[in-house]
Design brief:
Elements: H1 3-23, H2 30-40, H3 47-58, H4 67-84, E1 94-95, E2 98-99, H5 101-105, H6 107-129, H7 133-146, H8 151-160, H9 168-194, H10 198-222, H11 225-228, H12 234-238, H13 243-269, H14 274-285
Antiparallel strand pairs: 1-2
């Protein structure tokens, strides 16, 4: 099966499971449920769940048995997007081609929807942790990746260096935490669940996370808003610390190419895989 078909297989399975999960939501007041569903079901590439399923297959696991861990991943990612878009953060009116959550439900309800999705993710992880010691470790890895030493640390550093001078050291920290942690987690979680090489999986995930953010920064400068589904040019406008600011556009493109090559080398050390190798190429060449 070729890459596109396999991606669509994973995506279709995940969308079905996510729709069922959302259909079972019955929180009060109804606006809370509506706002949570709105952002969860707003589409997107679902890179993290698909990467989790692809990594499970790579390590010899059955991805159809781990849907709730994938939903926990997406709940955490979606909550972070809702909060990122708020006026106090990135102040973006659009996400995934649709009005941001706070533009539809108001800022206060958007904050609560994000809080609720994070709580839902933790409930899912607690439920899965009881299945086995490996599930407990996988759940803990994701919880750590989302927390104060993970994604939140990267977001805080991103805010700290907005409008300030920073170098490669600060940029690497932001990349490794703000974006990298939630892209490393699905790969390492799969390795944990299947008894794979966790250290090599983490090294690959960290490099892939860096590549993803490199291309994101590049696309903010030269991408198309319609394809990206969000407002572009905001990094320069807000004077964010990005690879383009540190290296210039030509240097940023070169860095992305080198990082993609590094990803492929790490993947070969992990045993090589057609699907995961294609994910690397997709991340480097994407236009959305």
């Amino acid at each position: 099966m070729n890459f596109r078909n396999k991606y669509d297989e994973y995506l279709s399975f995940f969308e079905g499971e996510l729709k069922q999960f959302c259909a079972e939501m019955k929180h009060f007041p109804p606006v809370l449920t509506e706002s949570m569903r709105y952002s969860l079901l707003s589409g997107g590439k679902r890179v993290r769940p698909v990467l989790f399923f692809g990594s499970l297959s790579h390590f010899g696991g059955d991805y159809t048995k781990e849907a709730r861990l994938a939903i926990a991943l997406e709940c955490i990612h979606t909550y972070s997007l809702i909060h990122d878009d708020l006026p106090a953060m990135d102040n973006d009116d659009f996400r995934r081609g649709n009005p941001s959550n706070h533009k539809v439900f108001g800022e206060a309800n958007a904050i609560l929807a994000g809080d609720a999705l994070l709580s839902e993710a933790m409930c899912l992880l607690l439920g899965e942790a009881g299945r086995s010691e490996r599930h407990l470790r996988a759940a803990q890895y994701l919880a750590d990746a989302a927390g104060a030493d993970g994604m939140i640390a990267g977001q805080s550093a991103d805010l700290l260096y907005t409008g300030r001078t920073g170098d490669e050291k600060e940029l690497s920290f932001i990349y490794a935490h703000k974006t990298g942690k939630l892209l490393t987690a699905p790969i390492v979680m799969a390795a944990i669940l299947c008894g794979g090489d966790e250290k090599k999986a983490e090294e690959f995930g960290e490099a892939l996370g860096t590549l993803f953010q490199l291309t994101d920064d590049i696309l903010d400068e030269k991408g198309e808003s319609a394809k990206m589904g969000k407002t572009l040019g905001k990094d320069r406008e807000e004077d964010k610390l990005t690879c383009v600011k540190v290296y210039g556009m030509e240097g940023a493109e070169l860095c992305a190419d080198r990082t993609a090559a590094h990803c492929h080398a790490l993947l070969r050390a992990l045993g090589g895989d057609g699907f995961l190798a294609s994910i690397v190429d997709l991340v480097r060449t994407r236009d959305n």
